[in-house]
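From the shared-data thread, chain only:
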Amino acid sequence: LNLINSGDSHMSPGMQEFMPLVHNIHPGLFMHLIYMEESLDNDQRAGWFGKVDEQLRGVPEQLTDVPELQGSFDVIGFSQSKQWALFPSGMSL
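Structure, as tokens:
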């Protein structure tokens, strides 16, 4: 089981607290936190003010680079991540 998670920031304290809770239920689970920007502040800013069409194009590219997610994966979506999870990567805007 591979899991992708996204929130207001991949580095937010809430997301950092959430990961161990999931790992306690599913030991050994691989988790990838989707991000728009690597720093906490910039990632939060991108969540509020980023251009969704650009983000939708970037997320599939990010996920393609994660070997553990090749084939299939499950998604837990917070905030705008539902859009990324439901938007087919082959579609264009």
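The first strand starts at residue 2 and ends at 6.
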